[in-house]
Amino acid sequence: MAEPGLNRAALVFGAFFVAAGVVFLLERLEVWDLQFRHLAPVVLIALGFAVLVGGTRRRSGRP
Q: What does the domain layout of the chain look like in residue ranges?
């Protein structure tokens, strides 16, 4: 049975994709000049954070 409440990993991934979409939109509209080499470390940090958050959740039914 699943635990009630929010799935934190899904929340982090969702927030990441929304933020990435806003960043790419601002770049496309030439509001913000962004290069991928500046964004790559942020992507890795966000993915690592999502993995950490997902790994700290308690899993019911497993020893």
A: 8-55
